[in-house]
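USER:
Make up one protein:

ASSISTANT:
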Amino acid sequence: MAVTESRPLNEVVFLTVAEVASVMRVSKMTVYRLVHSGHLPAIRVGRSFRVPEQAVHDYLRESYVGVESA
């Protein structure tokens, strides 16, 4: 889902790569890999990337793996 479909662009909260890494508890390199592979949408601002906060939540929700009891 595109960011602009869910809310106006002026209401979207963008996170830095460091902030995304902190939320996801992974390294910044892992976030860069997710962005470059297309798994995590981002926009480029100069030489930096900004990731919509909702995209991080969506990624985590879709990536959730439940543990089944045996």
About this structure: The CA atoms of residues 2 and 8 lie 11 Å apart. The mean pLDDT is 88. DSSP finds four helices and three strands in the chain. The longest strand covers residues 48-52.
